[in-house]
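Per reviewer request, we include the raw input and output of the structure prediction for the construct analysed in the revised manuscript.
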Amino acid sequence: MRIKIAGHDHEILGFDQEHRPNLMGRYEPDNNIIRIKEGMALSAKKETLTHEALHAMLTHSGVSVDEDGKVEMEEVVVAVASGLFQLGLSEVLWNQQEDK
């Protein structure tokens, strides 16, 4: 499966993680691959894909970390909002309004 995140194609692959059982997914920025642990419930796979997609959005948006490991809040908000909009989630939020 392939999805577009922040204008870039990403391949979604499964993996079997025996030596780190709590690891549900991982993002590989060098080759635009998201890996999701095999054998999880569909809802857990969807949540993991969302989590890893956010890693990809932030990476492609250039969110930076200072020397203390801190991230500027506005950078994160702008990057996440843009990425969620590109994934179509803004439409979901807009349609949830009671008085459209």
